[in-house]
Amino acid sequence: MAPFNLKMVVSIAMVASMVFGSSAIQHTVGDASGWVIPDNPNLYADWTSNKIFTVGDSLVFNFPNGTHDVTKVSKDDYVHCHVSNRGSTVRSSPAIFNLNRPGSHFYICSVEGHCAFHQKLAIHVVGG
């Protein structure tokens, strides 16, 4: 039986993590448009259409302070533009949300009327 070689095991683990591991991505919501009341009601749906969100990634919401906020909400709150849990509201920019679990995630601007004018985001996160 060959002797145990710790250096070799560590080297193989490092190479495997480089080949199979992926780096977390910071997704800037809306890219250059930022987090705004969109002129195009499909802005955020279009923005998500070519992205893959993975556990470990994060969302960065950029907006002028005092004009918007970001609240993570349930699907029902997203659909009805309602906020059940105000504790998750971030009022200063950049608002960063870490994607730490797979599944559907929903965000809205809770400033009155903004969500109704399509300042809301729905994404699906896949496992890491």
From TrEMBL:
This protein's GO cellular component annotations are:
plasma membrane
PROSITE patterns with a match to the protein in the record: PHYTOCYANIN (PS51485)
Report whether Secreted shows up as a keyword of the record. no
Q: Which residues form the signal peptide?
A: 1-24
Domain (Phytocyanin): residue spans on this chain: 25-127
Any one GO molecular-function label of the UniProt entry = electron transfer activity
UniProt keyword annotations, A-Z: Disulfide bond, Glycoprotein, Signal
* InterPro entries attached to this UniProt entry: Cupredoxin, Phytocyanin-like, Phytocyanin_dom
* Name of the protein this chain belongs to: Phytocyanin domain-containing protein
Q: What organism is recorded for this protein? A: Deinandra increscens subsp. villosa
